[in-house]
């Protein structure tokens, strides 16, 4: 895994990013992939707005106690809680509501979502957009990256784009990893806000054992080995 060899940037780097929009495939990706950076941005007085791409309903698809609308509202509430823990304005969220596990990468729904995202980035006057690594090994993450690229292509002066890593820690094939010329990789020192990041991850209770949706044994929960990657005092980014 090349990420551990990336050069380290100080926490003060966050202040240089300015107004930031984060594109989030599922509730919890914001806390896992860049909760530390979001906390540092807010400490530096930089506004943070969020775009949630999917409806988050497929982590426990067989639950009878929680219908799909109930799962959606639960996960939306967990996202707002996590953003508040990180110091972000939990009311500044654009919910695209695309189907969890089936976020499109082409077609009318994709084009409509890209237009909404482009408008939101413009409204927020963002100077930086955070988006999943383009080949993060989850189809929704890849589709979210493509959605971001399509939105930025519509802007005359697109903001800088930083890509964050979630599933590449666990599931990346060699071809999924950054290749020469694809961007500048670095690690960000988040030591000062690591406890805050951990509290934001803990806000996603439905995704952490023992979970809050207990009637779907096949449901998804973050493993201890997965969580260990996000208990480190650094976060990894690739600047496109």
Give the gist of this structure:
The protein has 240 residues and is an alpha/beta fold.
Write the SSE topology.
Blueprint: E1 8-9, E2 20-24, H1 29-43, E3 48-54, H2 68-85, E4 93-98, H3 108-123, E5 128-132, H4 139-152, E6 160-164, H5 168-171, E7 184-189, H6 194-202, H7 224-229, E8 234-239
Helix pairs in contact: 1-6, 2-6, 3-4
How would you characterize the overall build of this protein?
It is a single chain. With 240 residues, this protein is an alpha/beta fold. Helix content is 34%, strand content 18%. α3 crosses α4. The model has no long low-confidence stretch (mean pLDDT 97).
Q: Please, how many helices?
A: 7
Uncertain segments:
none
Whole-number average pLDDT? 97
Biggest sheet statistics: 8 strands, mixed
Structural class: alpha/beta
Elements, N to C (H/E)? EEHEHEHEHEHEHHE
Number of strands: 8
* Residue share in β-strands: 15-25%
**End-to-end separation:** 19 Å
